[in-house]
Amino acid sequence: MKRLMYSGAGLLLIALAFLAFNMLAGLTLTNARVDLTEQKLYTISDGTKKILGEIDEPINLYFFYSDKAAKDLVVLRNYARRVEEMLKAYERTAGGKIKLHIVDPEPFSEDEDKAAEFGLQAIPLEQGGDQIYFGLAGTNSVDETQVIPFFPLDQEEFLEYEISRLVQSLAKPERPVVGVLSGLPLNGGFDMASRQPTPPWMVMEEIRQLFHIESLKSDIDQIPEQVSVLLLVHPKNLPQQTQYAIDQFVLRGGKLLAFVDPWSEADNGMAMPGEPGGDKSSDLDILFKAWGLRMMPGKVLGDGANGMSVSMGQGKPPARHAAWLNLPRHSLDQSDVSTGGLENITLATAGILEPLDGAKTRFLPLIQSSEYAMPFDVQRFGMLADPEELIRELKPTGERYAVAARISGPVQSAFPNGIEGRKGGLKAAENVNLIVVADTDMLSDRMWVQVQDFFGQRVPQPWADNSGFAINALDNLAGSDALISVRSRGRFSRPFDVVEKLQRDAEVQFREREQELQQRLTETEQKLASLQQGQEPAKALELTPEQQATLQQFVQEKLRIRKELREVRFQLNADIEDLGRTLKFINIALVPLVLTLGVLVLWLWRRRRQA
Predict the structure, then answer these.
(1) What is the pLDDT of residue 155?
(2) Is the pLDDT of residue 551 over 70?
(3) What is the spatial distance between Cα 339 and Cα 151, in angstroms, rounded to a whole number?
(4) Which of 166, 423, 424, 438 could cross-link to 418 by cystine, CB 3.0-4.6 Å?
(5) How far is Cα 264 from Cα 266, in angstroms, rounded to an integer?
(6) What's the rounded Cα separation, in Å, for the pair 63 and 115?
(7) Which helix (H) or strand (E) holds 430?
(8) Residue 19: pLDDT above 70?
(9) Exposure of 556 in the CB half-sphere (CA atoms within 13 A)
(10) CA-closest candidate to residue 103, choices 146, 60, 65
(11) Hey, is 533 helix, strand or coil?
C-alpha cells in the first residue's frame, strides 16, 4: 500500500481524488460557510430570523448590480457576492415569503429604467463612462417600497442590519410614532457664524428610518394618543402645562426617553456668569422626584480613566479632557437590550443620575463611569481654557456614577392635585418604563459620527455607538426588539487596551514635564523683570552680567527639560515597539516552533514505541 502511495500512479490517484472532491464540494456546498468571527458577523442572527418568521404577506426584493460593468472591479465584485449570498440566505430562511430577483441593469434597458424608478443611485465609473448600480429595492403586497440606494463598501459590518431594517419596514409598514420635544435643532437649524443652514442631526435621520416622527411644541398641554414613545431632548424651562402633560402621558402607560444636561455643549445659548449652567442646562426635577430619581444639581461628571484626547490647536499636543468621555464596553450594562452588545459611547460634560432615598421605583444604571471619577462644579466649564486643569484637579472618589438609567415600578403623579383648569387627571400608575440620560451632546454628530457626502447621499461613518443606544432604547420602549440584536452586532472593534494604557501613562509624564517647564519659564521671566526694575529707560534693553548668567542658566535648563521630553516620547514609542515585536515573535516564530516541537515529540514517541 505504501509503495502505491509513493508511486506515480498513486500520486495521480490522489490528485484525481482531490479534484473530484473539489468539484463535488463546488456543486453541493455552494452556500456552506464556517463563521469563525467572535460575534458571528457572517451568520444570520436570531433577530433576523425572528423578523423573517413574522412576515405575513410576500415580499419582493430586487438586487440591482451592474455585473458586466464591474467586471474589472475586484473589491466591488467580492462585496457584491457577499451581498448576494446574504440575500439568498434571507430567501431560504423566510420559507417562501421572500422572492429574490437579481437584476443586471444594462445601459438603456428596461431594467435600468426600473432601477431609476425605484430611486437607486447610479455611480459613474469615469467621466462619460459606464455607471454602476449596487443597491436593493423591496416591495410588499400593498406596493409600498423601501430602498437601499447603494451599498457602501466601507459599511459591510452594517449589511445585515440594513437589509433586516428594510425587510421589517415592508413586513410591518405601520411604524411606531415617536413624539419629539427638543430644545436643540435636531431637524437642522441655522449657523450664525457661517450664516448657513445646518443639516438635521444624523441620529434623527436614522430614527426617522424606523419610526414615524411627530414634532411637539414646548408649550403643548396634552401628548397625542397616537404617540408610542415620547423623546425629550434638552427640555429647557418647560411650562407647567407641558410637565403635567408628560406626567399624565407616563401614568397612562406611555414610554419616555429623556435626555437632560447640566451643561449642553450643543446649546448655543450663552450662560450667565455665576449661574449653575445658565441657559445651557435642562432638567425635569419635579417629574424626576415623582419618578424616584434626580440629576445631581450643578455637577458635571469627570472621569480620569475614560477622558478623551481633544485637539488644542495647531502646534500644540492633544490634551486629555476629563469631562469628555469615551466609555468602553464594560461601562455599559450588557444585560439590558438598550446597551447590550454596544462597544463604546461618548459623552461631553454629562450629568450624574442617582436614585432618591425611599423611592419605590427601581433604578437600573445603564451607562456608568469608572471608579476613577468625581463630580465637578458646572461653573468650572464656563471659561475652561485648558482641559488638562481638570486632570490635575481630579480627586477620584472611588464611586461609579450613573449617566443613564432605566426607571421602572410604581409611581405617583408629580401633580396629585392637578393644575389650574385640569383637576381630574390620573393620580398613580402601577408600573412605568422610562430611560433617562444625563447628556444631550452624545446625540450631536461630532460626538459619534463622521458624515460624508456620497454623490448627494449623506453616508454616516460612526466611530461610537451613540445612535445605536438611542435607537435601541426607542425600539425597546416601543415594544420592538427584533432589530436590537442585529444592530448590536453591527460594529465590532478590538481596542488596543495595552497600547492605550502605555500612551496614557506616557502622556501623563509628558504633561508633568511640560508643566514644570512652563512654571520655570514664568519664574525666570519674573526674576528678569525684577532685575530690570530701577534701570534707566535708555538701558532697559541692556542685560547685566547677572541677567545674562540667569538667562544662560534658563536656556540650559530649558534644553535639559526638552531632552527629557524627547526621552519620554521615545520611551513611549519604544514600549509600544517592544510590545509589537513580542506579538510578531509569538505569531511568526513561537507558534510554528511549538508545532514543530510537537511533531518531533510525536515522531520520537512513535519511533520508541515501534522499537
Answers:
(1) 74
(2) no
(3) 26
(4) 423
(5) 5
(6) 10
(7) strand 428-437
(8) yes
(9) 6
(10) 65
(11) coil
- Three-state secondary structure readout of 234-303: CCCCCCHHHHHHHHHHHHCCCEEEEECECCCCCCCCCCCCCCCCHHHCECCHHHHHHHCEEECCCEEEEE
pLDDT at 277: 43
Q: Which amino acid is at 406?
A: R
Q: What average pLDDT does the chain have?
A: 82
Rounded Cα distance, 569 and 110, in Å: 63
User: Cα 430 to chain center, whole Å?
Assistant: 35
- Please report, in angstroms and rounded to a whole number, the separation of the first and last CA atoms in the chain: 22
260 within 8 A of 351, measured Cβ to Cβ: yes
CA distance 141 to 124: 33
Cell of 307: 477622558
Is residue 488 scored above 90 in pLDDT?
no
The pLDDT-based confidence of 498 (bands split at 50, 70, 90) is low
What is the spatial distance between Cα 14 and Cα 425, in angstroms, rounded to a whole number?
84
Rounded (10°) angle between helices 159-171 and 46-53: 20
pLDDT at 504 over 90: no
Number of H helices, E strands in the chain: 15, 23
Residue 91: all three cell numbers together: 430567501
pLDDT of 274 higher than 50: no
- Please tell me the predicted confidence (pLDDT) of residue 33: 58
CA distances from 61 to 68, 137, 157, 431, 599 (A): 21, 6, 21, 42, 53
Which comes out higher in pLDDT, residue 193 or 428?
Answer: 428
Mean pLDDT of 430-435: 93
* Burial (Cβ within 10 Å: 0-12, 13-18, ≥19) of residue 134: buried
| Cell numbers 461618548: residue | 346
Cα 491 from Cα 191, distance rounded (Å): 32
Q: Which residue has the higher pLDDT, 294 or 553?
A: 294
CA dist., res. 341 & res. 266, Å (int): 27
Is the pLDDT at 288 greater than 60? The verdict is yes
- Binning pLDDT at 50, 70 and 90, where does residue 596 land? confident
Closest CA to 520 of 547, 488, 556, 549: 556
**Who contacts 367 (Cβ-Cβ below 8 Å, separation ≥6)?**
327, 331, 332, 333, 339, 345, 347, 402, 403, 404, 437, 469
Are 488 and 340 a contacting pair, CB within 8 Å?
yes
Q: What is the pLDDT of residues 446-462, one digit of tens each?
A: 999 988 877 677 878 89
Q: What is the mean pLDDT of residues 99-119?
A: 91
Which 3 state secondary structure label does DSSP give 343? coil
**Least confident stretch, 30-34, 361-365, 445-449:** 30-34
Among candidates 212, 142, 148, which has minimal Cα distance to 177?
A: 212
Question: Which helix (H) or strand (E) is 310 found in, with range?
Answer: strand 307-310
Where do we find the cell 521630553?
Answer: 565
Q: What is the DSSP string of 446-515?
A: GGTEEEEEETTEEEEEESSSHHHHHHHHHHHHTT--HHHHHHHTT------HHHHHHHHHHHHHHHHHHH
Chain center to CA of 202: 12
The confidence score (pLDDT) of residue 586 equals 73
Please state whether 278 falls in left (phi above 0), alpha (psi between -120 and 50) or beta: left
Residues 6 or more apart whose Cβ sits within 8 Å of residue 171: 51, 54, 55, 56, 57, 59, 140
